[in-house]
Design goal:
The chain is of the alpha/beta class. The protein folds into two domains: 5-204, 2-enoyl-CoA Hydratase, Chain A, domain 1 (Alpha-Beta Complex); 208-254. The protein has helices spanning 32-46, 70-75, 79-99, 115-120, 149-157, 159-168, 174-180, 192-204, 208-220, 226-242, 244-254; strands at 5-6, 10-13, 16-22, 54-59, 104-108, 111-113, 125-128, 133-135, 172-173, 185-186. A seven-stranded mixed sheet has the order 1-2-3-4-5-7-10, with helices on both faces. Helix 1 runs parallel beside helix 3, helix 5 (149-157) crosses helix 6 (159-168) and helix 9 (208-220) packs antiparallel against helix 10 (226-242). It is globular, with a radius of gyration of 19 Å.
């Protein structure tokens, strides 16, 4: 992909890799094309073949993503094999998304159910509105979660709350989702997508190397002791101070001007 290119589900514009995870087709269910094309684009980003400063996950339509295509599940000759194929495809996307070193933003309008909720939990910053609703939805159709939801949700809300949400198939409204930390912030329902796009562009124009360092430190904190994390932070900030991003940021502060991280 070039600096301004689109495949229909994946767009690279202004340094933002935008992936449309669901459309109005099939009731805003998870797009298989988006998972394949998105995973390929994310792999290119992670391997250095593609340059972007942020990733943006969006839905096109009334919902962010209403979950998997249950009608396709029902129509499959061998349901287990079909669903396994869908899950494997979805999980390749999730693995590449989790490996990204740039910020991941999600604009979450309407419903984020099933796979949609799983994706929201992988975003670094998830923007919703008061009408946003999240629901695991898996047990409602007799299935178990995928997309890493049983891994991310306990880390966001705690194990006990995660068990309650998943077993009760809870519907979480925007304000509660923010309180629990699943959504990062609420904006007006009519500006969710535009605000997510604005934030992604701002992050893409920011100190990419510093963001990479922040994400790396946060990932290490899961398994580090405090002493180990302090050592990691000291090494990271020293490396950042010697890098071009750190030089520009510090010099701009001293010179009382806006830094140019491009």
């Amino acid at each position: 992909m070039t600096t301004s290119e689109s495949t229909g589900t994946v767009d690279l514009v202004d340094g933002v890799l935008q992936i449309t995870v669901a459309t109005d087709a099939a009731g805003t269910s998870l797009s298989g094309a988006a998972m394949v094309e998105g995973a390929n684009a994310l792999h290119a980003l992670n391997s250095g073949e593609l340059t972007a400063g942020a990733v943006l996950l969006l839905g096109s339509g009334s919902n962010f993503c209403a979950g998997g295509n249950v009608r396709a599940f029902a129509a499959a000759p061998v349901r287990g094999a079909y669903v396994r194929g869908v899950a494997d495809e979805f999980h390749r996307f999730v693995v590449e998304l989790a490996a990204t070193t740039v910020p991941v933003v999600a604009g979450v309008q309407g419903w984020a159910a099933g796979a949609g909720m799983s994706l929201v939990c992988h975003a670094d910053i998830a923007i919703g509105g008061r009408s946003t609703k999240l629901r695991p939805a898996y047990s409602g159709i007799g299935l178990t979660p995928d997309g890493g939801l049983t891994w991310t949700l306990p880390r966001i809300v705690g194990p006990a709350r995660a068990r309650d949400i998943l077993l009760s198939d809870s519907v979480l409204h925007g304000e509660e989702a923010v309180r629990l930390g699943i959504l990062s912030r609420l904006v007006g329902d009519d500006i969710i997508i535009s605000e997510a796009q604005r934030l992604a562009r701002t992050l893409a124009a920011g100190p990419t190397a510093a963001f990479e360092g922040v994400k790396a430190l946060l990932q290490k904190s899961d398994t580090h002791t405090l002493a180990e994390q302090l050592d990691a932070e000291a090494a990271s900030i020293a490396a950042a101070a010697d890098g071009p991003t750190g030089h520009e940021g510090v010099d701009a502060f001293v010179e009382k001007r806006r830094p140019d991280f491009s």
